[in-house]
């Protein structure tokens, strides 16, 4: 118990410092440096036990050499921030240390999951919140579920006979969509080449006519178009595909419509921004990750399904040792047979607790505030010297994509030399940021566009001054490149 | 901060009481009772926020109506117990709130995972601990990985072209094995009917001759036998399939050998018991869940792979926005593209910290002790009046399977009536146990055997007196049935 209290002391100190802007975001070291052991921090495992004092030192060192993802100047991922209620929820979850597969051993958590999923389905717009769903270990697995249940809906015999029982099935998703759709296609036996990438407009949104043309072309080849993924909030551009137009096409060709709202689904909480997902209520399934835009600690991802019973039908194996039909309670509350997992981590409690503490209105305020901050950033740099926006127009989500052009490149005409040099700018600035430990922001190329920064905001602790700091820092580090 | 300290107070009180045998294992309520709201515990989510005082009450109530999986008399699942170091590790993990996909945002955790997986591969017996692996969200997903990479090894074109590019592929697994192999077969597009179940001996171990006969039969039909799963520690009987004999057959027919050691893999830590997995070093892949027999908090499951590079080859999609090749550090440390997940929860730290605190020898002692306790139970009841063992001989793992025969059934001759009545005994006793809240133990039917109790021990807090208590409690609750 004394040990637990000392750990708690370490953790509360860490949390306090995380919100202190004078603390570094990270204390960067290369893998070989950490492996060699810095100041006695030894990662190797031994036969003999260490003392509890040494364990406490190990805990401190682990935090010291890690990355403060809750720091107000950490902008590197879609999941940022450290919500105190969520953190308390996750501590309680660890202490309860149970498993979601049966009501028997997780009665409260199972009911919380049911109620929360129903609430989310209501917000999606399904009648009375009807349908089904699960929390899964991340958006990629949620998306994988959507492909599995689409296949089960149209070709249930695949469950028993395998893919050879079905014709050649085609999945469609945007070239800007998350790679998990292609990964699911490969894993589930469709094959990557049967995942057709759709063209997008300059903002990264699927062009519906391209979808229809590709469906027709697949049908002409004798293939069966099965599934369309519409992304609500793409990873890089934050683009929202036009769901209603896509839903029209899915209805016309009798296809499954999935909306990947891992990143953008949370805008449904905002009366101001939810129109960006208009048509989502027409989807057959929706991925929505509260661990991204809603600031819930990792992991917390929901797969929502409009048709009740299909998750169970798709995945059930009826294992007698776990799902006994002769229990004393109503066993329809046992959720395990719907999942591809057996044991399933309790991801619901922290989210439920945050919802209790903030109310629906609290999440709405959080979403609105993050979007205001991104608008602030966009307005600040769109005409600023040395910046070039990757696309025109206000951001749809909090993603702001831009190049920083160092003074040495500003007078070089567009062409191969400039492109090559510009491609190296973001990685260099990022590396310096990490070595200074002052801030972190992502970059990547996209299509024929060379490396650019992708700024995203989901941290409730971030303010305009942190946005200002980021810009100053990019300029400080980049001016002599 | 004050709030966090109050939560901490609630949690430490809970932990203290969990180890107190006068505390109930659970305070059972039916779903409708909890949904109606007991003593003001309201599960519904609202638009408006609740006060922090109410949030603290919610935390207390959540624990109150849950199940104490760390209680010394909780024997219901393979994962039991509450290790204090592991718990501290999980609290730290939640506080760090990061993601395993890149070294960039989880430098320390990524290295801990690498070193720990290497250590586990050394213990499996692969030369210099070479190979690959990942921590995944549970044994079912680890087993799914094994099927995916087996397919990729023999038919890499399936990744691109889908299952139609391969002949009809057959997976083999014991009729006593975990249902996740069949689930993986269904999900990945093989089809459940191409997952052939192998016959077992009276102890639940695969009969190698049956495997060979079924392989030959599949080949005669023109199918391609691809994969054999050998279980090390089955879920119900705790049986260990004869790995060496199975490995001989896999070599002869050029098939992938997977060992599902989700439950039994931990016996590798014990010099006394590891012989039960003899031949495991010949496997191509191994599932091993430290969150079961080693007492690590949920979730912690490893998939180990003998051939380096194949996980990456099977799953990589090379997303530019996450796995930039032009980072300043050695990007081979970015593990995300090996996984079917994108974001991946940090499951390593609690395990690493426990290993530091206990040493390899500490895990060995824990395993040996649990097996001694199960031997104690077996010896206590094997000749006791009113008990009938499901199988003869000492348990291979901590699973002890038995019927309790109430006095009213003892003089009824074996036959349909006795079977029917006996089938109802375990569920009734279990329901009463749960209503009294005194202890919990699992039951299930198996094949033609009616419901029997399956006792398992993985909790470091359990002692002989708790075993004695379980037996007394079964007799107290069952004597008048």
From TrEMBL, chains A, B:
One of its GO terms (molecular function) is glutamate decarboxylase activity. Its cofactor is pyridoxal 5'-phosphate. It holds the Pfam family Pyridoxal_deC. The modification N6-(pyridoxal phosphate)lysine is found at residue 292. GO terms for cellular component: cytoplasm; presynaptic active zone. Keywords: Decarboxylase, Lyase, Pyridoxal phosphate. Belongs to the group II decarboxylase family. This is Glutamate decarboxylase 1b isoform X2. It comes from Ictalurus punctatus (Channel catfish). The lineage of its organism: Eukaryota, Metazoa, Chordata, Craniata, Vertebrata.
């Amino acid at each position: 118990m004394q040990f637990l209290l000392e750990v708690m002391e370490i953790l509360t100190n860490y949390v306090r410092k995380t919100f202190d802007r004078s603390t570094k975001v990270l204390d960067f070291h290369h893998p070989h440096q950490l492996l060699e052991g810095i100041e006695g921090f030894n990662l190797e495992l031994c036969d003999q036990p260490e003392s509890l004092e040494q364990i406490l030192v190990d805990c401190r060192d682990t935090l010291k050499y890690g990355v403060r993802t809750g720091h107000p100047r950490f902008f590197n991922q879609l999941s940022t921030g450290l919500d105190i209620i969520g953190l308390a929820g996750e501590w309680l979850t660890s202490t309860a240390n149970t498993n979601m597969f049966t009501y028997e051993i997780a009665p409260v958590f199972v009911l919380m999951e049911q109620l929360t999923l129903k609430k989310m389905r209501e917000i999606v717009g399904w009648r009375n919140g009807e349908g089904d769903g699960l929390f899964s270990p991340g958006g990629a697995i949620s998306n994988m579920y959507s492909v599995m249940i689409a296949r089960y809906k149209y070709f249930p015999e695949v469950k028993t006979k395998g893919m050879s029982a079905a014709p050649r099935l085609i999945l469609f998703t945007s070239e800007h969509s998350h790679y998990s759709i292609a990964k699911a296609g490969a894993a589930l036996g469709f094959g990557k080449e049967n995942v057709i990438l759709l063209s997008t407009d300059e903002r990264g949104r699927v062009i519906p006519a391209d979808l229809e043309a590709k469906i027709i072309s697949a049908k002409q080849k004798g293939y069966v178009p099965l599934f369309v993924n519409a992304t609500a909030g793409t990873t890089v551009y934050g683009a929202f595909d036009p769901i209603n137009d896509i839903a029209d096409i899915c209805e016309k060709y009798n296809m499954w419509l999935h909306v990947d709202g891992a990143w953008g689904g949370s805008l449904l909480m905002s009366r101001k921004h939810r129109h960006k997902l208009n048509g989502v209520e027409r989807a057959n399934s929706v991925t929505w990750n509260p661990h991204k835009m809603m600031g819930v600690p990792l992991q917390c991802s929901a797969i929502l399904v409009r048709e009740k019973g299909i998750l169970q039908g798709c995945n059930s194996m009826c294992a007698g040792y776990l799902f006994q039909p002769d229990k004393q309670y109503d066993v329809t509350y046992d959720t395990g047979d719907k999942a591809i997992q057996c044991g399933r981590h309790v991801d619901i409690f922290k989210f439920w607790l945050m919802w209790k503490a903030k109310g629906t209105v609290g999440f709405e305020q959080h979403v609105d505030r993050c979007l205001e901050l991104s608008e602030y950033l966009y307005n600040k740099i769109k005409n600023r010297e040395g910046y070039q926006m990757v696309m025109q127009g206000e951001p749809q989500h909090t993603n702001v994509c831009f190049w920083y052009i160092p003074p040495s490149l500003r007078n070089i005409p567009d062409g191969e030399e400039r492109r090559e040099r510009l491609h190296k700018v973001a990685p260099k600035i990022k590396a310096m940021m990490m070595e200074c430990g002052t801030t972190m922001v992502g970059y990547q190329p996209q299509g024929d566009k060379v490396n650019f920064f992708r700024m995203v905001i989901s941290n409730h602790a971030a303010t305009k001054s942190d946005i200002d700091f980021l810009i100053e820092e990019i300029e400080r580090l980049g001016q002599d490149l």
